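Shapes recur. One chain:

:::
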Amino acid sequence: MAKPIPEPHSPKQNHLLAALPAETFDRISPHLEWVSMPIGKVLYESGDQLQHVYFLTTAIASLSYVLENGAAAEIAGVGNEGFVGISLLMGGKTTPNRASVHTGGYGYRLKEQLLMEEFNRAGPMRNLLLRYIQALMTQISQTAVCNRHHSVEQQLCRWLLLTLDRLPSNELTITQELIAGMLGVRREGITEAAGNLQRAGFISYRRGHITVIDRLGLESNACECYGVVKKESHRLLIP
């Protein structure tokens, strides 16, 4: 049995769990284990046998591909809109990417067999999770296009906006070095891009802390990729 969930945390802070019918949620809620997810926590490494899936609430995770030389780049982010561990539902027990936390917080984990039991009922949870997988695939493909065709500044705007959508405030605690690693660019490129956004009045930046001052300005400076991902997520996941 999972340990008691402390207040004010609730599994329904995760949008997928909140969207489940009461009957479905009541079946799985006793098995949801509340877990702390500090910055840098690795939820799984490339090739790991997945034992749990993670429904995030206040934490945000980065799905990254790590090259043989140690370089890495984010292929997608996951926050309170989704869950980590989709390969289980696709017929695979492992995945070639790494999932790690870049914004500390909390979430809930569920044992693999319990998720599959509910998924195989072919009911509301199956339909919801498949729609989420489609939304995540859109994010992954759009990230690939963005990284190839758009400037570092546009990529940074996209990343900031997607991250902001998963947070309750307009403030992010993260270093330029970590952002550079996730976008797969040089730190100097992020420093220059963040400086441009700050001079434009869109953000305020001090070491390890970013505040978005003008969200509309940030959106106007972003490429089309942010809008594509957001529109598809809304279409698939919001009733």
